[in-house]
Amino acid sequence: MNKKKKWIIIFISVFIICVVMVFNFCCKNALIKVVYSQSNLNKNFTGILSGPLQEADFELELPDGIELLELFSDSLKEKLGSPLKIEEINEVTVWRTYYYRDFQLVTDFNYDTGKETIIRIVITGENMKTNRGLKVGDEASKIVEKYGLCEPSVHVNGTTLYTYSFKVIPKNQSYNRFIYIVVEKNYVKEIKFRKRY
């Protein structure tokens, strides 16, 4: 009987040690992942995220009621005035980019109907901020302070992209909102907004 108890105690001890080792391994990997994300942004990061992300954090207040996935009407074009330039990419669909002083509008143009839909808004100037106060020219560490940790992707041209998304589930049709923050030499270069059904 004593021998049996002894083996049971040994088995339980070994089992507990294995569980602790697996737990420590998982925690270590999770910690490495978080530290890696932080170190890519700023090794001295001490900022605190101001609450969980909401849909409003993925919206942008632009003049004259510009909205993603809404029509870029003639009246709206008139209100905005002449763009600095217009670029057009004609592939499977026609994309037009309208360059204004502090932002760009990318549209999907339908030749059959003559209608344009705004599919992307890009902040390019320092005079505009996101709803969380991020702007072009800010240090990359401010991204984490405002939007939380994420694992950025490094592009071949030397820029780094930080992507945040938010899923909205209304009564009729769900959609996703995205913010793409482009960083060059540790400073925010562009902030892109998208909305996709």
Question: What does the largest sheet look like?
Answer: 8 strands, antiparallel
Radius of gyration: 24 Å
Give the averaged pLDDT, no decimals.
Answer: 81
Number of strands: 8
Please state how the strands of the largest beta sheet are arranged side by side.
1-2-3-4-8-7-6-5
- Can you give the helix content as a percent range? 25-40%
Q: What overall geometry do the principal axes of the alpha carbons give?
A: elongated
Question: Termini distance?
Answer: 67 Å
Order of helices and strands: HHEEEEHEEEE
Strand content: 25-35%
Total of helices:
3
Query: What structural class results from the helix and strand content?
Result: alpha+beta
Give a structural overview.
- The chain starts with a helix and ends with a strand.
- It contains 3 helices and 8 strands; from the N terminus they run H-H-E-E-E-E-H-E-E-E-E.
- The protein has an 8-stranded antiparallel β-sheet, with no helix packed on it.
- The protein has a domain at 61-127.
- Helix content is 27%, strand content 30%.
- It is elongated, with a radius of gyration of 24 Å.
- Mean pLDDT is 81; it is low at 25-49.
- With 197 residues, it is α+β, with helices and mostly antiparallel strands.
- Strand 6 (160-168) and strand 7 form a beta hairpin.
